[in-house]
Amino acid sequence: MDAFTIKDLENLTGIKAHTIRVWEQRYSFIKPQRTGTNIRYYNSLELKKILNVALLAKYGFKISHIDKMGEEDVKKNIFSLSTLEAQQDRFINELIQCTVSLDMERFENVLDSFIQSKGIDKTILHIIFPFLNRIGILWMTNHIGPGEEHLISNIIRQKLIAGIEGIVTHIYREKIVLLFLPEGEYHELGLLYVAYLLKKHGAEILYMGADVPVDDLKAVCKIKLPHYLYTHTTCDFKLEKYFSNFHAALPDTQLVVSGKFCHKFKNKNPQFVHVKKSLQEVMEFVSDL
User: Fold this and answer.
1) How far is 222 from 118, CA to CA, in rounded Å?
2) pLDDT computed for residue 37 by the predictor
């Protein structure tokens, strides 16, 4: 996890590759190495430097001034950024740096700090989700293996579960929602966030978790009679086929589906299926229960 391409840096920092090349030519804070075929690559220390430089530049510091700063001056100026947006960016950058160095203790402390300051809801929306969007490049390029992914995901999972358990609400809706992931789907973070939203808005939630066969759903539905079943997908599987199999097993059950690939679903929704293609549509469903 110590050889990043310029494209990796572009995705992780938000700085265009062209700009990074210009910085290399003009300033001293970044000095990439090159492969035998003359392709640039960067180590984790350079990634951290660029994350910090990008953050300061975004909030008004000139690159020429940043280039002259020592490490302590960089840290001091980063912590002096006072706007909420800047603080959020700083926390996300810290999480990325912890991920690259696999400093899980610091990773958890950073999350806890924001949760204590702003609450779990803001942490989920403004820190965890943007972090996961940016860090996804590390999974796609194999800079993070399955073991590291589990470490990070489980820390976030624990925070989401703690947030759900800590909800105290005086809202009560006479709606039961059963949440699950289909067989072969194991990424629970999106589903846990929906569970958080539903409970916060007064719904009764039944959480079955990951990799749930349709027959198991059928058995629980027979007893609990939920108003909706809710699933959140990150795998690119055949939605139409799943809808057909689901409807054959549970013909009188309303299914709500959200997730990464739902925006690709172009067909007309079956009568019993409600496809949510954005977070806004998910929020509207929760509010309208």
Assistant:
1) 41
2) 85
